[in-house]
Amino acid sequence: MMASRSNRPDPSVVNLCSDPTHDLLRVAHRPLDAIFAPRAIAVIGASERPNSVGRTLLWNLIRNAFGGTVYPVNPKHNSVLGIKAYPSIAAIPEPVDLAVIATPAHRARGDRGLWAGRGERGDRDLSGL
Q1: Strand residues in the chain grouped as ranges (E)
Q2: How many domains does the chain fold into?
Q3: Which carries the bigger pLDDT value, residue 18 or residue 125?
Q4: 32-84: pLDDT as tens digits
Q5: Exposed / middle / buried, residue 127 (Cβ in 10 Å: 0-12, 13-18, 19+)
Q6: What 3-state class would DSSP assign to 90?
Q7: Domain range for residue 107?
Q8: Which CATH number do you get for residue 106?
C-alpha cells in the first residue's frame, strides 16, 4: 500500500511567481511614479508674470499635456493662465502626486503652509531659480 501525499507545498521548491526578485519591473509598489509619472501636479507659485519660473513651468505643463491634471497654487489669484488657481494645496479637490515649488528662495520657507500636509508623494523645489 502506498503512503498518501500531503497537500502541503514542498518547502524546498521556490515559487518564482511569488518571489518579488523574480520580476523587478512588475513590482506593484512604484514609489518614483510620483516624480516620473505623476497623475496630478500642483505648481506652487504659479503666476502670470512674464518670464517667472512659476509661469514658465505652468505654461510648459499645459502646453505639452503630460496626461495628468495641473493645479496652479497661488493665494493671490483666482486663476492663472485661464486655469482655476487654489489658495493652498489643501484646497485642491483630489490627491496630488507631485508638488513643484516655484517661489522665490526667500519666500519658500514661509510658503510651506501652501503645500505642506496634504500627503503629496513627491516634491521638487525650484525656489531661487
Answers
A1: 40-44, 69-73, 79-80, 83-84, 98-101, 122-125
A2: 1
A3: 18
A4: 777 788 889 999 999 999 999 999 999 999 998 778 999 999 999 999 999 99
A5: middle
A6: helix
A7: 39-125
A8: 3.40.50.720
